[in-house]
Amino acid sequence: MSGSNPIHVVGGGLAGSEAAWQIAEAGLPVVLHEMRPLRGTEAHQTDGLAELVCSNSFRSDDPQLNAVGLLHQEMRRLGSLIMRCADANQVPAGGALAVDREGFSQAVTAALEAHPTVTIAREEIDGLPPAAWDSVIVATGPLTAPGLAEGIRGLTGAESLAFFDAIAPIVHRDSIDMGKAWFQSRYDKAGPGGTGADYINCPLDREQYAAFITALVEGDKTSFKEWEASTPYFDGCLPIEVMAERGPETLRHGPMKPFGLTNPHNPTVKAYAIVQLRQDNALGTLYNMVGFQTKLRHAEQVRIFRTIPGLENAEFARLGGLHRNTYLDSPRLLDATLRLKAEPRLRFAGQITGCEGYVESAAIGLMAGRFAAVEREGRSLEPLPVTTALGALIGHITGGHVSAEEEGTPRSFQPMNVNFGLFPPLDRAPKAPDGKRLRGTEKAQAKKRALTDRARAALGEWLGEEPAPLPAAAE
Protein backbone atom coordinates (compact mmCIF):
# COMPACT_ATOMS: atom_id res chain seq x y z
CA MET A 1 0.00 0.00 0.00
CA SER A 2 1.67 3.19 -1.09
CA GLY A 3 -0.76 5.60 0.60
CA SER A 4 -1.53 9.04 -0.76
CA ASN A 5 0.06 11.05 2.05
CA PRO A 6 3.79 11.46 1.73
CA ILE A 7 6.18 10.94 4.60
CA HIS A 8 8.00 14.17 5.39
CA VAL A 9 11.69 14.32 6.24
CA VAL A 10 12.99 17.57 7.71
CA GLY A 11 16.70 18.12 7.11
CA GLY A 12 18.82 17.19 4.10
CA GLY A 13 21.98 16.10 5.91
CA LEU A 14 23.29 12.55 5.92
CA ALA A 15 20.54 11.19 8.17
CA GLY A 16 17.69 12.94 6.35
CA SER A 17 19.00 12.00 2.92
CA GLU A 18 19.40 8.36 3.93
CA ALA A 19 15.93 8.27 5.53
CA ALA A 20 14.31 9.75 2.42
CA TRP A 21 16.13 7.22 0.23
CA GLN A 22 14.94 4.26 2.29
CA ILE A 23 11.33 5.47 2.12
CA ALA A 24 11.57 6.06 -1.62
CA GLU A 25 13.11 2.65 -2.22
CA ALA A 26 10.07 1.16 -0.44
CA GLY A 27 7.97 2.73 -3.18
CA LEU A 28 6.43 5.41 -0.99
CA PRO A 29 6.17 9.16 -1.66
CA VAL A 30 8.48 11.28 0.46
CA VAL A 31 9.07 15.03 0.74
CA LEU A 32 12.56 16.05 1.84
CA HIS A 33 12.58 19.56 3.32
CA GLU A 34 15.91 21.40 3.26
CA MET A 35 16.19 25.07 4.24
CA ARG A 36 19.34 25.79 2.25
CA PRO A 37 19.89 27.87 0.15
CA LEU A 38 16.96 30.00 1.40
CA ARG A 39 18.51 30.03 4.85
CA GLY A 40 22.15 29.17 5.38
CA THR A 41 24.03 28.08 8.47
CA GLU A 42 27.35 29.10 9.95
CA ALA A 43 28.87 25.75 9.00
CA HIS A 44 27.51 24.86 5.55
CA GLN A 45 29.16 26.17 2.39
CA THR A 46 26.82 24.85 -0.32
CA ASP A 47 23.16 23.98 -0.90
CA GLY A 48 24.01 20.33 -1.64
CA LEU A 49 22.37 17.52 0.29
CA ALA A 50 24.52 15.46 2.68
CA GLU A 51 27.21 18.16 2.80
CA LEU A 52 30.13 17.18 5.05
CA VAL A 53 30.79 20.21 7.24
CA CYS A 54 33.86 18.92 9.12
CA SER A 55 36.11 15.99 8.23
CA ASN A 56 35.77 14.11 4.93
CA SER A 57 36.44 10.79 6.65
CA PHE A 58 33.94 8.06 7.47
CA ARG A 59 36.68 6.51 9.63
CA SER A 60 37.87 2.90 9.54
CA ASP A 61 36.51 0.62 6.83
CA ASP A 62 37.73 -2.53 8.60
CA PRO A 63 34.64 -4.70 9.26
CA GLN A 64 36.56 -7.29 11.28
CA LEU A 65 38.37 -5.25 13.93
CA ASN A 66 36.54 -1.93 14.02
CA ALA A 67 32.94 -1.23 15.07
CA VAL A 68 32.43 1.62 12.60
CA GLY A 69 33.87 -0.54 9.81
CA LEU A 70 31.30 -3.17 10.73
CA LEU A 71 28.60 -0.48 10.62
CA HIS A 72 29.75 0.43 7.08
CA GLN A 73 29.32 -3.18 6.05
CA GLU A 74 25.87 -3.48 7.61
CA MET A 75 24.67 -0.30 5.91
CA ARG A 76 25.88 -1.57 2.54
CA ARG A 77 23.91 -4.78 3.06
CA LEU A 78 20.83 -2.68 3.87
CA GLY A 79 21.03 -0.67 0.65
CA SER A 80 22.45 2.57 2.03
CA LEU A 81 22.59 5.50 -0.40
CA ILE A 82 25.18 7.23 1.77
CA MET A 83 27.56 4.28 1.63
CA ARG A 84 27.00 3.77 -2.09
CA CYS A 85 27.92 7.40 -2.80
CA ALA A 86 30.84 7.29 -0.36
CA ASP A 87 32.29 4.22 -2.09
CA ALA A 88 31.87 5.88 -5.47
CA ASN A 89 33.73 9.01 -4.35
CA GLN A 90 36.45 7.44 -2.20
CA VAL A 91 39.86 9.09 -1.96
CA PRO A 92 43.08 7.45 -0.67
CA ALA A 93 43.11 7.37 3.14
CA GLY A 94 44.82 4.15 4.24
CA GLY A 95 42.41 1.92 6.10
CA ALA A 96 39.83 4.67 6.41
CA LEU A 97 36.98 5.48 4.05
CA ALA A 98 37.44 9.13 3.08
CA VAL A 99 35.57 10.84 0.29
CA ASP A 100 35.77 13.71 -2.15
CA ARG A 101 33.29 15.80 -0.21
CA GLU A 102 31.98 17.77 -3.18
CA GLY A 103 31.57 14.70 -5.37
CA PHE A 104 29.93 12.80 -2.52
CA SER A 105 27.34 15.51 -1.87
CA GLN A 106 26.63 15.89 -5.57
CA ALA A 107 26.08 12.14 -5.92
CA VAL A 108 23.61 12.03 -3.02
CA THR A 109 21.77 15.07 -4.33
CA ALA A 110 21.56 13.70 -7.86
CA ALA A 111 20.26 10.31 -6.67
CA LEU A 112 17.48 11.85 -4.63
CA GLU A 113 16.54 14.40 -7.29
CA ALA A 114 16.26 11.63 -9.86
CA HIS A 115 14.11 9.29 -7.75
CA PRO A 116 10.50 9.32 -8.98
CA THR A 117 8.90 9.26 -5.50
CA VAL A 118 11.10 11.95 -3.92
CA THR A 119 10.13 15.63 -3.80
CA ILE A 120 12.77 18.05 -2.52
CA ALA A 121 11.25 21.18 -0.96
CA ARG A 122 13.68 24.03 -0.39
CA GLU A 123 12.00 25.63 2.60
CA GLU A 124 12.55 26.14 6.30
CA ILE A 125 10.34 24.36 8.81
CA ASP A 126 10.51 27.02 11.49
CA GLY A 127 8.56 25.37 14.27
CA LEU A 128 6.79 22.07 14.77
CA PRO A 129 5.73 20.40 11.49
CA PRO A 130 2.05 21.04 10.54
CA ALA A 131 -0.46 18.77 12.25
CA ALA A 132 -1.64 17.55 8.83
CA TRP A 133 1.69 15.77 8.34
CA ASP A 134 0.94 12.42 9.92
CA SER A 135 4.43 10.94 9.57
CA VAL A 136 7.52 13.11 9.96
CA ILE A 137 11.21 12.33 10.44
CA VAL A 138 13.13 15.18 12.05
CA ALA A 139 16.79 14.94 11.04
CA THR A 140 17.98 18.46 11.61
CA GLY A 141 21.27 17.69 13.33
CA PRO A 142 23.28 19.78 15.78
CA LEU A 143 22.42 22.98 13.87
CA THR A 144 18.64 22.67 14.21
CA ALA A 145 16.86 25.94 13.41
CA PRO A 146 15.95 27.83 16.60
CA GLY A 147 12.21 27.82 15.88
CA LEU A 148 12.07 24.07 15.40
CA ALA A 149 14.30 23.48 18.42
CA GLU A 150 11.95 25.62 20.48
CA GLY A 151 8.95 23.62 19.25
CA ILE A 152 10.62 20.34 20.20
CA ARG A 153 11.57 21.77 23.55
CA GLY A 154 7.94 22.69 24.19
CA LEU A 155 6.81 19.12 23.41
CA THR A 156 9.44 17.38 25.47
CA GLY A 157 9.65 19.75 28.39
CA ALA A 158 13.44 19.74 28.18
CA GLU A 159 15.05 22.77 29.74
CA SER A 160 17.54 23.15 26.93
CA LEU A 161 18.29 21.51 23.60
CA ALA A 162 21.17 23.59 22.27
CA PHE A 163 24.25 24.45 24.25
CA PHE A 164 27.97 23.98 24.56
CA ASP A 165 28.58 20.93 26.61
CA ALA A 166 31.87 19.44 27.66
CA ILE A 167 31.58 15.66 27.73
CA ALA A 168 33.56 13.20 29.82
CA PRO A 169 35.64 10.28 28.51
CA ILE A 170 34.27 6.73 28.57
CA VAL A 171 36.55 3.78 29.28
CA HIS A 172 36.23 0.12 28.39
CA ARG A 173 35.70 -1.74 31.67
CA ASP A 174 38.08 -4.57 30.78
CA SER A 175 40.99 -2.15 30.27
CA ILE A 176 40.91 -0.90 33.90
CA ASP A 177 43.49 -2.43 36.24
CA MET A 178 41.39 -3.74 39.13
CA GLY A 179 44.58 -4.66 40.94
CA LYS A 180 44.80 -0.94 41.75
CA ALA A 181 41.16 0.17 41.40
CA TRP A 182 38.17 -1.20 43.28
CA PHE A 183 34.37 -1.18 43.34
CA GLN A 184 32.71 0.88 46.06
CA SER A 185 30.02 3.54 46.34
CA ARG A 186 30.82 6.51 48.53
CA TYR A 187 29.99 5.59 52.16
CA ASP A 188 28.75 2.24 50.72
CA LYS A 189 25.42 3.84 49.92
CA ALA A 190 23.35 1.56 47.74
CA GLY A 191 20.80 4.12 46.61
CA PRO A 192 17.88 3.28 44.29
CA GLY A 193 18.81 0.18 42.34
CA GLY A 194 22.40 0.19 43.57
CA THR A 195 24.47 -2.32 45.48
CA GLY A 196 26.80 -0.11 47.51
CA ALA A 197 29.63 -1.04 45.17
CA ASP A 198 28.55 0.70 41.98
CA TYR A 199 31.59 2.87 41.20
CA ILE A 200 35.12 2.02 40.16
CA ASN A 201 37.60 4.04 42.24
CA CYS A 202 41.17 4.96 41.27
CA PRO A 203 43.34 6.35 44.11
CA LEU A 204 46.03 9.07 43.87
CA ASP A 205 48.56 10.00 46.54
CA ARG A 206 49.62 13.63 47.17
CA GLU A 207 52.46 13.63 44.66
CA GLN A 208 50.40 11.94 41.95
CA TYR A 209 47.59 14.43 42.50
CA ALA A 210 49.91 17.44 42.29
CA ALA A 211 51.44 16.18 39.05
CA PHE A 212 47.99 15.50 37.65
CA ILE A 213 46.76 19.04 38.41
CA THR A 214 49.86 20.53 36.79
CA ALA A 215 49.33 18.42 33.68
CA LEU A 216 45.68 19.51 33.44
CA VAL A 217 46.53 23.20 33.69
CA GLU A 218 49.40 22.99 31.21
CA GLY A 219 47.70 20.58 28.77
CA ASP A 220 46.86 21.59 25.22
CA LYS A 221 43.18 22.51 24.85
CA THR A 222 40.69 23.05 22.04
CA SER A 223 39.29 26.49 21.29
CA PHE A 224 35.89 27.71 20.13
CA LYS A 225 35.21 27.95 16.41
CA GLU A 226 34.18 31.37 15.17
CA TRP A 227 30.67 30.25 14.20
CA GLU A 228 30.11 28.75 17.65
CA ALA A 229 30.85 31.96 19.53
CA SER A 230 27.23 32.94 20.16
CA THR A 231 26.19 29.66 21.81
CA PRO A 232 25.96 29.69 25.61
CA TYR A 233 28.03 27.36 27.75
CA PHE A 234 26.21 24.50 29.48
CA ASP A 235 25.76 25.51 33.09
CA GLY A 236 26.94 23.01 35.68
CA CYS A 237 29.19 21.11 33.29
CA LEU A 238 32.54 22.89 33.62
CA PRO A 239 35.60 21.24 32.05
CA ILE A 240 37.89 19.65 34.61
CA GLU A 241 40.88 21.75 33.54
CA VAL A 242 38.86 24.93 34.11
CA MET A 243 38.18 23.77 37.67
CA ALA A 244 41.88 22.95 38.11
CA GLU A 245 42.81 26.48 37.07
CA ARG A 246 40.71 27.84 39.95
CA GLY A 247 43.10 26.36 42.50
CA PRO A 248 45.06 23.16 43.18
CA GLU A 249 42.59 21.90 45.81
CA THR A 250 39.42 22.62 43.83
CA LEU A 251 39.14 19.16 42.29
CA ARG A 252 39.95 17.44 45.58
CA HIS A 253 36.85 19.06 47.03
CA GLY A 254 34.83 18.34 43.88
CA PRO A 255 34.79 15.31 41.57
CA MET A 256 38.08 13.94 43.00
CA LYS A 257 37.17 14.11 46.69
CA PRO A 258 38.49 11.07 48.58
CA PHE A 259 35.82 10.91 51.27
CA GLY A 260 33.72 7.85 52.17
CA LEU A 261 36.00 5.39 50.37
CA THR A 262 38.50 2.78 51.58
CA ASN A 263 41.05 1.19 49.32
CA PRO A 264 40.89 -2.59 49.93
CA HIS A 265 44.33 -3.00 48.37
CA ASN A 266 45.84 -0.74 51.03
CA PRO A 267 43.16 -0.14 53.71
CA THR A 268 45.40 1.62 56.25
CA VAL A 269 46.37 4.42 53.86
CA LYS A 270 43.81 7.03 52.85
CA ALA A 271 44.00 8.21 49.25
CA TYR A 272 44.69 11.93 48.80
CA ALA A 273 42.29 12.10 45.85
CA ILE A 274 40.13 9.60 43.97
CA VAL A 275 38.84 9.38 40.42
CA GLN A 276 35.50 7.62 40.17
CA LEU A 277 34.06 5.86 37.11
CA ARG A 278 30.37 5.15 36.78
CA GLN A 279 28.69 2.44 34.73
CA ASP A 280 27.57 3.94 31.44
CA ASN A 281 25.65 1.19 29.67
CA ALA A 282 23.31 -1.57 30.74
CA LEU A 283 25.82 -4.23 29.72
CA GLY A 284 28.40 -2.95 32.19
CA THR A 285 31.12 -2.87 29.54
CA LEU A 286 31.63 0.92 29.61
CA TYR A 287 32.37 3.31 32.46
CA ASN A 288 32.47 7.10 32.30
CA MET A 289 34.91 9.23 34.29
CA VAL A 290 32.65 11.07 36.73
CA GLY A 291 32.97 14.86 36.54
CA PHE A 292 35.74 14.65 33.94
CA GLN A 293 34.16 16.80 31.23
CA THR A 294 37.06 18.24 29.32
CA LYS A 295 38.15 20.32 26.36
CA LEU A 296 41.70 18.95 26.38
CA ARG A 297 42.82 17.76 22.96
CA HIS A 298 42.36 14.03 22.50
CA ALA A 299 46.05 13.12 22.53
CA GLU A 300 46.46 15.10 25.76
CA GLN A 301 43.53 13.29 27.36
CA VAL A 302 45.07 9.91 26.64
CA ARG A 303 48.48 11.03 27.91
CA ILE A 304 47.22 12.70 31.09
CA PHE A 305 44.41 10.32 32.07
CA ARG A 306 46.69 7.31 31.73
CA THR A 307 48.77 8.72 34.60
CA ILE A 308 45.87 7.89 36.93
CA PRO A 309 46.61 4.66 38.85
CA GLY A 310 44.46 1.90 37.40
CA LEU A 311 44.05 3.62 34.06
CA GLU A 312 47.61 3.17 32.75
CA ASN A 313 46.32 0.91 29.96
CA ALA A 314 42.86 2.42 29.63
CA GLU A 315 41.15 2.03 26.27
CA PHE A 316 38.73 4.86 25.59
CA ALA A 317 35.39 4.18 23.90
CA ARG A 318 34.96 7.94 23.64
CA LEU A 319 37.21 10.80 24.61
CA GLY A 320 35.93 14.00 26.14
CA GLY A 321 35.13 16.99 24.01
CA LEU A 322 33.47 20.34 23.64
CA HIS A 323 30.41 20.54 21.43
CA ARG A 324 27.78 22.94 20.33
CA ASN A 325 25.01 20.43 20.29
CA THR A 326 21.29 19.96 19.88
CA TYR A 327 20.11 16.56 20.97
CA LEU A 328 17.30 14.87 22.80
CA ASP A 329 17.39 12.91 26.00
CA SER A 330 16.49 9.98 23.77
CA PRO A 331 16.30 7.14 26.32
CA ARG A 332 13.54 9.08 28.04
CA LEU A 333 11.79 10.61 25.05
CA LEU A 334 11.93 8.11 22.16
CA ASP A 335 10.46 4.63 21.74
CA ALA A 336 12.29 1.68 20.19
CA THR A 337 11.38 2.82 16.66
CA LEU A 338 12.72 6.34 17.27
CA ARG A 339 9.25 7.92 17.65
CA LEU A 340 8.65 10.72 20.13
CA LYS A 341 6.55 9.18 22.89
CA ALA A 342 4.74 12.49 23.45
CA GLU A 343 3.77 12.78 19.75
CA PRO A 344 4.32 9.53 17.81
CA ARG A 345 3.81 11.10 14.38
CA LEU A 346 7.26 12.61 14.90
CA ARG A 347 10.27 10.34 14.49
CA PHE A 348 13.89 11.48 14.96
CA ALA A 349 17.11 10.56 13.17
CA GLY A 350 20.75 11.56 13.10
CA GLN A 351 22.76 13.51 15.65
CA ILE A 352 19.69 14.99 17.30
CA THR A 353 19.02 11.51 18.74
CA GLY A 354 22.37 11.52 20.55
CA CYS A 355 24.68 9.65 18.21
CA GLU A 356 27.95 11.07 16.97
CA GLY A 357 29.63 10.85 13.60
CA TYR A 358 28.61 10.92 9.96
CA VAL A 359 28.22 7.15 9.71
CA GLU A 360 26.18 6.76 12.88
CA SER A 361 23.88 9.63 11.83
CA ALA A 362 23.26 8.10 8.44
CA ALA A 363 22.73 4.67 10.01
CA ILE A 364 20.03 6.00 12.34
CA GLY A 365 18.48 7.77 9.36
CA LEU A 366 18.45 4.47 7.50
CA MET A 367 16.47 2.73 10.22
CA ALA A 368 14.18 5.73 10.83
CA GLY A 369 13.27 5.63 7.13
CA ARG A 370 12.60 1.90 7.26
CA PHE A 371 10.53 2.22 10.44
CA ALA A 372 8.43 5.00 8.86
CA ALA A 373 7.95 3.07 5.61
CA VAL A 374 6.66 -0.14 7.20
CA GLU A 375 4.44 1.86 9.52
CA ARG A 376 2.88 3.59 6.51
CA GLU A 377 2.28 0.19 4.95
CA GLY A 378 0.53 -1.03 8.08
CA ARG A 379 3.28 -3.47 8.92
CA SER A 380 5.82 -3.72 11.69
CA LEU A 381 9.56 -4.26 11.51
CA GLU A 382 11.32 -6.77 13.69
CA PRO A 383 13.92 -4.94 15.81
CA LEU A 384 17.50 -5.37 14.68
CA PRO A 385 19.44 -7.77 16.90
CA VAL A 386 21.43 -5.88 19.51
CA THR A 387 24.42 -8.00 18.53
CA THR A 388 24.64 -6.04 15.25
CA ALA A 389 26.40 -2.68 15.15
CA LEU A 390 23.27 -0.82 14.11
CA GLY A 391 21.10 -2.68 16.61
CA ALA A 392 23.58 -1.94 19.39
CA LEU A 393 23.64 1.75 18.47
CA ILE A 394 19.85 2.04 18.44
CA GLY A 395 19.68 0.07 21.66
CA HIS A 396 22.00 2.55 23.34
CA ILE A 397 20.02 5.54 22.09
CA THR A 398 16.58 4.26 23.00
CA GLY A 399 17.17 2.27 26.13
CA GLY A 400 20.59 0.84 26.80
CA HIS A 401 21.97 3.82 28.63
CA VAL A 402 22.09 3.87 32.40
CA SER A 403 20.55 7.13 33.61
CA ALA A 404 22.45 8.32 36.63
CA GLU A 405 21.65 12.00 36.86
CA GLU A 406 20.12 13.51 39.93
CA GLU A 407 17.52 16.21 39.98
CA GLY A 408 19.03 19.57 39.11
CA THR A 409 22.20 18.09 37.58
CA PRO A 410 23.09 17.74 33.89
CA ARG A 411 21.63 14.84 31.94
CA SER A 412 23.87 11.79 31.90
CA PHE A 413 22.94 10.68 28.37
CA GLN A 414 25.62 12.00 26.05
CA PRO A 415 26.34 11.64 22.32
CA MET A 416 28.45 8.64 21.38
CA ASN A 417 30.04 6.91 18.40
CA VAL A 418 29.43 3.23 17.75
CA ASN A 419 31.99 1.09 19.61
CA PHE A 420 32.39 -2.47 20.81
CA GLY A 421 31.41 -1.48 24.33
CA LEU A 422 27.81 -1.17 23.12
CA PHE A 423 27.71 -4.83 22.07
CA PRO A 424 26.52 -7.58 24.44
CA PRO A 425 29.50 -9.56 25.78
CA LEU A 426 30.45 -12.86 24.16
CA ASP A 427 29.18 -16.04 25.80
CA ARG A 428 32.75 -17.30 26.03
CA ALA A 429 36.18 -15.80 25.50
CA PRO A 430 37.91 -16.80 22.25
CA LYS A 431 40.85 -19.18 22.65
CA ALA A 432 43.87 -20.11 20.57
CA PRO A 433 43.54 -23.06 18.14
CA ASP A 434 45.34 -25.23 20.71
CA GLY A 435 42.77 -24.30 23.36
CA LYS A 436 45.09 -22.05 25.36
CA ARG A 437 44.06 -18.66 26.70
CA LEU A 438 44.95 -15.68 24.57
CA ARG A 439 46.64 -12.60 25.99
CA GLY A 440 47.34 -9.00 25.04
CA THR A 441 46.79 -7.92 21.44
CA GLU A 442 45.92 -11.43 20.28
CA LYS A 443 43.15 -11.62 22.85
CA ALA A 444 41.76 -8.19 21.93
CA GLN A 445 41.75 -8.93 18.21
CA ALA A 446 40.20 -12.36 18.66
CA LYS A 447 37.43 -10.80 20.72
CA LYS A 448 36.71 -8.20 18.05
CA ARG A 449 36.64 -10.84 15.31
CA ALA A 450 34.22 -12.92 17.35
CA LEU A 451 31.95 -9.91 17.91
CA THR A 452 31.92 -8.93 14.24
CA ASP A 453 31.40 -12.54 13.06
CA ARG A 454 28.45 -12.80 15.43
CA ALA A 455 27.07 -9.49 14.12
CA ARG A 456 27.29 -10.60 10.49
CA ALA A 457 25.48 -13.84 11.26
CA ALA A 458 22.77 -12.01 13.23
CA LEU A 459 22.14 -9.49 10.45
CA GLY A 460 21.98 -12.30 7.90
CA GLU A 461 19.35 -14.07 9.96
CA TRP A 462 17.40 -10.82 10.37
CA LEU A 463 17.47 -10.35 6.60
CA GLY A 464 16.26 -13.92 6.07
CA GLU A 465 19.45 -15.00 4.36
CA GLU A 466 20.71 -18.54 4.31
CA PRO A 467 23.00 -19.12 7.31
CA ALA A 468 26.42 -19.26 5.71
CA PRO A 469 29.81 -17.76 6.54
CA LEU A 470 29.97 -14.21 5.25
CA PRO A 471 33.08 -12.60 3.83
CA ALA A 472 34.65 -10.23 6.31
CA ALA A 473 35.68 -7.83 3.56
CA ALA A 474 33.48 -4.88 2.79
CA GLU A 475 30.70 -5.84 0.42
Automatic annotation (TrEMBL):
Residues 7-378 form the MnmG N-terminal domain. InterPro entries: FAD/NAD-bd_sf, MnmG-rel, MnmG-rel_CS, MnmG_N, TrmFO. Its EC number is 2.1.1.74. GO terms for molecular function: flavin adenine dinucleotide binding; tRNA (uracil(54)-C5)-methyltransferase activity, 5,10-methylenetetrahydrofolate-dependent. It comes from the Bacteria. Residues 428-451 are annotated as: Disordered. Its cofactor is FAD. It catalyses: uridine(54) in tRNA + (6R)-5,10-methylene-5,6,7,8-tetrahydrofolate + NADPH + H(+) = 5-methyluridine(54) in tRNA + (6S)-5,6,7,8-tetrahydrofolate + NADP(+); uridine(54) in tRNA + (6R)-5,10-methylene-5,6,7,8-tetrahydrofolate + NADH + H(+) = 5-methyluridine(54) in tRNA + (6S)-5,6,7,8-tetrahydrofolate + NAD(+). It is found in: Cytoplasm. FAD binds at residues 11-16. Pfam families: GIDA. The keyword Methyltransferase applies. One of its GO terms (cellular component) is cytosol. It is an enzyme of class 2 (transferase). NAD-binding protein involved in the addition of a carboxymethylaminomethyl (cmnm) group at the wobble position (U34) of certain tRNAs, forming tRNA-cmnm(5)s(2)U34. Belongs to the MnmG family. TrmFO subfamily. NCBIfam families: gid_trmFO, PRK05335.1. This is Methylenetetrahydrofolate--tRNA-(uracil-5-)-methyltransferase TrmFO. It comes from Methylobacterium currus.
